[in-house]
Amino acid sequence: MSVMDKLKQMLKGHEDQASKGVDKGGDMIDDRTQGKYKGHVDTAQDKLKDQFGGDQPGPGQNPPPAS
Question: What superkingdom heads the lineage (predicted)?
Fold first, then answer.
């Protein structure tokens, strides 16, 4: 079992908290680098959220409109 699989298993049911943590970590990196790598950090945040399911609507929430 890979490390990513173990993380996904641990975070199951806590996707919203994982998403908040990813956002907070990315914001900290942006602050420390004065936004120099903002594009790279945003891409990494999006990929992590996809992996952990952080941006999926929860029960009772409407999904974002498809464009």
Answer: Bacteria
- Residues contacting residue 26 through CB under 8 Å, at least 6 positions apart: 41, 42, 44, 45
Helices (H), 1-67: 3-11, 15-32, 38-52
The pTM of the full predicted model, rounded to 2 decimals, is: 0.66
Of 29, 60, 32, which is closest to residue 45 (Cα–Cα)?
A: 29
| pLDDT in 10s for each residue of the chain, 67 residues | 788 888 888 888 888 888 999 999 999 999 999 999 999 999 999 998 888 876 555 444 455 555 5
